[in-house]
Structure formats: structure tokens, C-alpha cells
Specification:
This protein has 523 residues and is of the alpha/beta class. It is built from 24 helices and 19 strands. The protein has three domains: 3-191 and 348-398, Periplasmic binding protein-like II (D-Maltodextrin-Binding Protein, domain 2, 3-Layer(aba) Sandwich); 198-347 and 402-483, Periplasmic binding protein-like II (D-Maltodextrin-Binding Protein, domain 2), CATH 3.40.190.10; 496-521. The protein is 46% helix and 16% strand. A hairpin with a 2-residue loop joins strand 8 and strand 9 (187-188).
């Protein structure tokens, strides 16, 4: 049985407070009711099940509209060249429940919920919501790791000899290396997290209004030529990254800097610089950008691009693919540029929560099996087709994912303006691998293909924006408040003199009236 509950992209704080209030008023009634509805997650009987048949309840929470929900029309079936047919008849969750019973002989009841932002998820956990498996972004994974809230993946999860371990046998070598080389407090991401989707950030633009060179730099956000025609992300992390990229342009574009052996490490350090000096400079630049852009946005930028309200939009690659697809249906062509200075590499990944798993081996097995099931190559394709983002799964010995890539972006036999687009770095770890050089229409390099599967060149100048400690987070958040609200430091000195003069005059009037009143009363 599927319990699929989604709350939308922004859970109301008032609603959350109301839920807490009701919980407090209910007192001991809620635990009793919960026990009647759910019971022990490892031993609840399903309808019609025998008294000895075990059922596991798995509580999953992920992004809204971030997993295939099935119900495909027959003409949506994907017939790939490798002989695989991709078709989502049932939801991915329902298919997992059936697959788990067939392979493990245990019924699993998935309670699937959704969150709108990483902060929503964190607030839900803080308010007492309990989940076994969640899918936040990389910086929230790092935060949860630092707070010791995650359950490590089992050794068995990494057993490459287990044919049901689709994740470890199919994850991209590039993604695997990234997870194994990034650490929090001396522990690698891979100890706790398995990737789900990944992408980069860049500029979605209208090539009839802006050139590729103009779009291919973070400085476009402050380009007066496009005043009030560009949108920027309404969140501090993405905006800060763009500002640092623009501020450090000369350094980042220096050929000697890029040729250094530790270029990637230095790039990461530069893009994660939260020194007071860099924060101050970024604030000044973002103030200028604020005056230049049309708006700060989260979701509206895609529609604004399609309707022509703006000519460029700072965008996540997955949303850029969606916008380009939708624009094509309306007869509008949009392109995607990866800033030449650098780009932000981001991930969403599956992690188990310690207080959810709570030492239950059956629940942990079900959680890891869920990760593996959605990582099976055909299921990775189903989710990519539904979501529009890029799965971290390359497929290993199974070429289904690459066949889907060829199905989606490969050039027709009679096309003339085509290019070779190597993607070996992602599929095998060798970008010169001839089996993974896609013959694609030339225009796709700067469109959906380049956004969904970035070139090795784009990946090499990418950096992950890491989780900041409490002090740095406080400073950056204050910077964002100053930008998005009002910065009292920007008030000119002459204005303070006027304010002081007005206050002094008012004080004088008050004193005068008090003295006059005393004189009149004869006091």
C-alpha cells in the first residue's frame, strides 16, 4: 500500500506551528493513535496477511515531483536501441514494493512524503517528523553529517558481487570519485550518502537577444546592456557563488592557474571563501546586481524566459532543460551557457536518518534496497524522463542509460551539422572511450544535451559549494538580509545629520511645551 503525501514546495510555518500545537493538546492520544495505525514498523500485519508474516514500514521523504509516478500513455513507451523498453505503468514506489516482496519475501509499506526546500526538510525534522530515508541536496547532507544525524550505509551495500546492488555497480565513476573524495569531519560522503540526481548551474538565455559570449560569464548578471532583463536565484548560496565567480574572474580565467596540479582544490577553496573581506565584496556586487536584474526568483524564471519577459535567467541545469523543452513547444529557442569562470556542481542524494532506522536491521535493509531499486538503469531512465534532471547512474555493464541518451539527443543518420560529444568521463572514467562518444546535432552542445550531460571541460571547472559552519552561515545570512531587505550601512552620512536634526527639533518642541504648561499652571 502506498501512502504518498506531498506538501508542496514551501511548507507553511503557520501550518507547522499549528500541527505542533495540536500535538501538544492531544497529549498522549497521538502516540496511541499512531500505534493503532502503524504499530511496530518491523512487524505490522498487512490486510489479509498471516499472523507470522512480517511487514516493514519505510518512511521516505524527497522533493516534490522527484520520482516517476507512473500512469504513462502507451505512446510514451521508450523503445531503446539496446532492446530495452522503458514504460512507467505503475508508480516507482508501487513497483518497488512489489519488487521487494518478490526478491526478499517481505512486504514493505512505503510512506512517501515530500518537501519543498532543504530548509523545509530540516524544519520538519526539527519539529519531530521521523523518516527513515530522505533525499536532500549536498550541503544539507553535509549539515546532517556534521550533526551526527545520519545512519551509515552497510558494508553489504557496497558489495559489487551482489547483483541487486544496482547503485554501486552502476554509479558513474566520476560521481563515485566525487563522493569518495569529499569529507565532513574526516568522513567521506560515500559513507552515508548515495547520489540520486546531479547538475550544474549556468545561464539560460535567448540567443536572439544575447550572444553565447555575453551569456557565458557570471558578469552578465551585472551587465548594464541587459538591465532589467535578467533574473537571478532568490537564495543566498546560488547568488553568493555567482558573485564570487564574478569577483574572482581574472584569477579563475588565468591559464597558469588552471594548469596547476591542484587546480581543482584551489578552485574549491576560492568558491567556498567566506572570509569577512569576500563576504563584504560579494555584498557590494550583489547590491549592484540587484539594481540591474529584473527580479530574484525561484521558479518563475522559466516562465519568464518562455514568454520573453526576460532574456536571461540564472538557472539550474535540470530546470534549464525543462524550460528549453517547453519553449520549443511554443516555437521559442533557448540556449544554456556554462560560465567560463566556473560552475556550481550540485547533487541530491539518499541518506538514512539515525533516529528513523533506530537500529532496525529490516528497516535499514528496505531503505538500502529502495536506493538500489531507483538506481537500476531502467528505473534511472524512468526518473530522468519524468523529472528532467540527470541521474548519477551510468549503468556499469548495462548500457540502458547511454542508449536513452542516444535515443534523446543522438543525431539522425541524414543530419549534416553534427559533432562528436565525448562522455566517457561519466560512463567509464575515460573520456576518450570510443564507445561513449555521442554523435549529436551541433546545436545541442549549448542546449539540452550540454545542460543535462555537461562536457568534461565544464565539469573540470566545476566546484561543490560546501556546508558552512555556524559563524560563516550567520555572516552570509546577514549579508543576504542586507541585500534582500535593507542595509542600514548604506544610509549616507548627510541623511544621518538630517535625522539627528529632526530628532533634536522634536525634542526641543516637547521640552518647550512642557515648560510652557508648567508656567501656565503656575508650577
Amino acid at each position: 500500500m502506498i501512502r504518498h503525501i506531498c506538501f508542496g514546495r514551501s511548507i507553511s510555518r503557520k501550518l507547522a506551528a499549528a500541527v505542533m500545537a495540536v500535538s501538544l493538546l492531544a497529549g498522549q492520544m497521538l502516540p496511541v493513535m499512531a500505534a493503532e495505525d502503524i504499530g511496530d514498523a518491523a512487524s505490522v500485519k498487512s490486510d489479509g496477511a498471516s499472523a507470522t508474516e512480517k511487514e516493514v514500514t519505510l518512511r521516505v521523504c524527497s522533493w516534490e515531483e522527484y520520482i516517476d509516478e507512473g500512469g504513462w500513455d502507451e505512446d510514451e513507451a521508450l523503445e531503446l536501441d539496446n532492446g530495452t523498453t522503458i514504460f512507467g505503468e505503475n508508480s516507482m514506489v508501487e513497483d518497488f514494493e512489489n519488487w521487494y516482496y518478490e526478491n526478499y519475501g517481505v512486504k514493505v509499506n512505503v510512506q512517501y512524503s515530500c518537501f519543498g526546500t532543504n530548509e523545509d526538510l530540516y524544519n520538519m525534522l526539527t519539529l519531530g517528523d521521523v523518516y527513515d530515508l530522505v533525499c536532500p541536496s549536498e550541503y544539507m547532507i553535509m549539515k546532517l553529517m556534521s550533526e551526527n544525524k545520519l545512519e551509515p550505509l552497510s558494508d553489504g551495500f557496497f558489495d559489487e558481487n551482489n547483483d541487486k546492488n544496482y547503485y554501486i555497480n552502476g554509479v558513474s565513476p566520476y560521481i563515485r570519485d566525487t563522493f569518495e573524495t569529499h569529507e565532513i569531519n574526516g568522513e567521506t560522503w560515500s559513507k552515508y550518502a548515495a547520489g540520486f540526481m546531479f547538475g550544474i548551474t549556468g545561464i539560460l538565455y535567448n540567443p536572439e537577444k544575447m550572444t553565447a559570449d555575453e551569456a557565458g560569464t557570471w558578469t552578465v548578471l551585472n551587465n548594464p546592456k541587459f538591465a532589467k532583463q535578467i533574473t537571478i536565484k532568490d537564495n543566498v548560496r546560488d547568488s553568493y557563488f555567482a558573485a564570487v565567480g564574478a569577483l574572482q574572474r581574472d584569477k579563475l580565467m588565468d591559464t597558469e592557474f588552471r594548469a596547476q596540479d591542484d587546480y581543482s582544490e584551489q578552485l574549491k577553496d576560492i568558491m567556498n571563501d567566506v572570509s569577512p573581506e569576500t563576504i563584504a565584496k560579494s555584498q557590494d556586487l550583489l547590491q549592484d546586481i540587484k539594481d540591474n536584474v529584473y527580479s530574484f526568483e525561484t521558479d518563475s524564471g522559466k516562465a519568464d524566459m518562455i514568454t520573453g519577459k526576460v532574456v536571461a535567467n540564472y538557472q539550474w541545469s535540470g530546470d534549464a532543460v525543462y524550460a528549453m523543452d517547453q519553449a520549443e513547444e511554443d516555437g521559442v529557442k533557448l540556449d544554456f551557457a556554462v560560465p567560463e569562470e566556473c560552475t556550481n556542481l550540485y547533487f541530491d542524494g539518499w541518506v538514512m536518518l539515525k533516529n528513523g532506522i533506530d537500529g532496525d536491521a529490516d528497516r535499514k535493509q528496505a531503505a538500502e534496497a529502495f536506493i538500489n531499486f531507483v538506481s537500476r538503469p531502467d528505473n534511472a531512465v524512468r526518473n530522468m524522463y519524468y523529472i528532467g534532471y540527470t541521474s548519477v547512474i551510468a549503468g556499469g555493464d548495462d548500457d540502458t542509460v547511454y542508449s536513452y541518451l542516444d535515443y534523446t539527443y543522438g543525431a539522425e543518420d541524414d543530419e549534416e551539422d553534427v559533432v562528436d560529444y565525448p562522455l566517457g568521463y561519466f560512463f567509464t572514467g575515460d573520456n576518450s572511450d570510443p564507445d561513449y562518444v555521442l554523435r549529436a546535432p551541433a546545436e545541442q552542445v549549448n542546449r539540452q544535451l550540454g545542460a543535462q550531460y555537461p562536457s568534461q571541460d565544464a565539469i573540470e571547472r566545476s566546484a561543490v559549494m560546501e556546508y558552512f559552519d555556524e559563524d560563516a552561515t550567520k555572516d552570509i545570512n546577514q549579508m543576504w538580509i542586507n541585500i534582500r531587505c535593507y542595509n542600514i550601512k548604506d544610509v549616507p552620512i548627510w541623511a544621518w545629520f538630517i535625522v539627528a536634526a529632526v530628532i533634536g527639533a522634536l525634542a526641543g518642541v516637547i521640552v518647550y511645551h512642557k515648560r510652557s504648561k508648567k508656567f501656565y499652571l503656575g508650577k
